[in-house]
């Protein structure tokens, strides 16, 4: 959903999730990612996820920003996940949305 630009839909779905991860996702997605403060929060959360070795989630958080931090997301996918084809696919999909 993040690649397609449906962050608002993801936020709505996270409201229905009752566990801890859903509440954390909801608190993350309620921020305005188009402001400098929101982009910095997005970057900090993504790097925290990288430290926890949750690379898919980190790449998705980088893509939540408006405009998406595509370079950082692709770097995480290539370097940490070692999947250049996925990185290429993500780059192409984000560029065309």
Q: How is this structure best described in words?
A:
With 97 residues, this protein is mainly alpha-helical. The chain is 70% helix and 0% strand. The protein has six helices and no strands. It has helices spanning 7-16, 20-29, 36-51, 55-64, 70-79, 84-95. It is globular, with a radius of gyration of 13 Å.
Summary of the model, kept short:
With 97 residues, this protein is mostly helical. The chain has helices at residues 7-16, 20-29, 36-51, 55-64, 70-79, 84-95.
List keywords for this structure.
single chain, 97 residues, mainly alpha
Topology of helices and strands:
Elements: H1 7-16, H2 20-29, H3 36-51, H4 55-64, H5 70-79, H6 84-95
Helix pairs in contact: 1-2, 3-4, 4-5, 5-6
* Computed CA radius of gyration, to the nearest angstrom: 13 Å
How many helices? The count is 6
Into which percentage range does the β-strand content fall? Answer: under 5%
The H-and-E topology, N to C, reads as HHHHHH
* Poorly predicted runs: none
Q: Assign an overall shape.
A: globular
Gap between N and C termini: 12 Å
From the helix content, strand content and strand pairing, which structural class follows?
mainly alpha
Largest sheet composition: none
Helix content: over 70%
If you average the pLDDT, what whole number results? Answer: 83
Counted beta strands = 0
């Amino acid at each position: 959903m993040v690649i397609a630009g449906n962050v608002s839909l993801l936020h709505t779905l996270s409201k229905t999730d009752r566990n801890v991860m859903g509440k954390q996702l909801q608190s993350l997605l309620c921020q305005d990612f188009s402001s400098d403060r929101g982009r910095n929060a997005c970057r900090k959360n993504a790097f925290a996820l990288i430290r926890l070795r949750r690379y898919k989630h980190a790449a998705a958080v980088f893509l939540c920003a408006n405009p998406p931090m595509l370079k950082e997301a692709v770097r995480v996918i290539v370097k940490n996940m070692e999947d250049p084809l996925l990185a290429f696919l993500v780059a192409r999909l984000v560029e065309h949305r």
